[in-house]
Amino acid sequence: MATNHLLEIKQYGQSIWMDNLTRDMIQSGELKDLVENQGISGITSNPAIFEKAIAGNAIYDADITAGLRAGLPTYKIYEALIFADIRNACDILRPVYEATNKLDGYVSIEVPPTIAHDTQATITEARRYFSEIGRENVMIKIPGTEAGLPAVEQAIAEGINVNITLLFSVQSYINTAWAYIRGLEQRVSEGRDISQIASVASFFLSRIDSNIDAKIDARVKRGVDDITQTAKLSAIKGKIAIANAKIAYQEYKNIIQSERWQALAAKGAKVQRLLWASTSTKDPNYNDVMYVNELIGRDTVNTLPPATITACADHCEVGDRIQTGIQEAYQLMESLKDPDININIDAVMDELLTEGIDKFVKPFQSLMNSLESKIKVLSPV
How many domains does the chain have? Predict the structure, then answer.
């Protein structure tokens, strides 16, 4: 029988979650099989995933019709659909949640992407989602924007599990980690338990390489001064995201060694694990599991889309690599300042965050439009 490399990865302290959720996979038993037999120990979702799941899928028609009969507006029908899927997925993953002492077994759902820059609205929706879904192992996704981080802090203080998403820069991860710590500290100051709260910091990968590679290709196409400059530009293609992630992991290690974290750990706090997101390889010239192979390590999560899950199960080269090539990673990031390369990484990260929110807003709005159209078809004349 062929080795499932996903199961091997667990030996190195990394959990594999799946970046996908549909009602079809819940009802068919596929999700249950992935959890029980294939090493999947969590689920992440986002508006783009739900748009693909719901738009044009008749499996949701009965619930849409029920929402119509109840007089619900489109947005509430949407929520009823996704909340039901999230609850059912949480129930399937509940045994994992219990078996791992609440380390894994979570299902993530994102607050509406249209409120990414509104702190109070994000707090309100995170609170409502957590309450209405009513599952201990649900995790509310909040974007790591300037407005999102105070919402993260408040949600953690209230005992809500949080997945901070759309993190690109190392500094954005550091800010996220301290928001988590402040939320726990507030909870401790109020005399409340912190041992039941979980959080992950979702650090995006392939989008970084896609952005930087496109900039390099455009520059080479316009023409460069000499062969040395071409070589320097070519040498960094497809390498920045992994280097960036390895540096973020070093910052994680520094944070958990701090006195503030140690004081919380003594009270039972769980570490906020780094979660590698955007892990499908976009360039066909690159290894299709490179964002898995190079970032396996303790206290991390990798969330994979279905195609990457299949590829990794088949041919991931499993080993503890998160701590390897650290000096090279720092040198690689520093090389971006070389005049022959001259890529402003901070500007790239800001651009990616703006694009990331837009990539969730557009499918969210598209799904609302699709639901409106379906409602018209299903509405009694």
Answer: 1
Residue partners of 78: CB distance under 8 A and separation at least 6: 54, 367, 368, 371
Query: What CATH number corresponds to the domain at position 140?
Result: 3.20.20.70
SS3 244: helix
- Locate 90 and state its tokens: 């949480």
Specify whether 10 is catalytic: no
Which residues face 359 on adjacent strands? Answer: none
Provide the residue range defining the domain that includes 215. 5-376
Contact 131, 65 (CB under 8 A): no
Q: What pLDDT was estimated at residue 191?
A: 97
Query: Going along the chain, which residue ranges are E strands?
Result: 14-19, 40-44, 106-110, 138-143, 162-167, 199-204, 273-277, 300-304
Distance from C-alpha of 285 to C-alpha of 348, rounded to nearest angstrom: 22
- The amino acid present at 80, given as its one-letter code, is A
Place of tokens 């929520």: 79
Phi, psi dihedral angles at 291 (to 5 degrees)? -80, 0
Scan for tokens 């609440």, then name that residue: 102
189-209 pLDDT, tens digit per residue, is: 999 999 999 999 999 999 999
Is 381 a member of any domain? no
Q: Which of 102, 141, 246, 374 is catalytic?
A: 141
Quick check: pTM over 0.90?
Answer: yes
Span between the terminal Cα atoms of the chain, in Å: 56
- How many Å separate Cα 32 from the centre of its chain? 21
User: Angle CA(297)–CA(209)–CA(346) in degrees, nearest 5?
Assistant: 95
Tell me if residue 129 falls in helix, strand or coil.
helix
Residue 177 domain-assigned (yes or no) = yes
The sign of the torsion formed by the CA atoms of 30, 34, 37, 43 equals negative
Could you tell me if 138 and 90 are in contact, meaning their C-beta atoms sit under 8 angstroms apart? Answer: yes
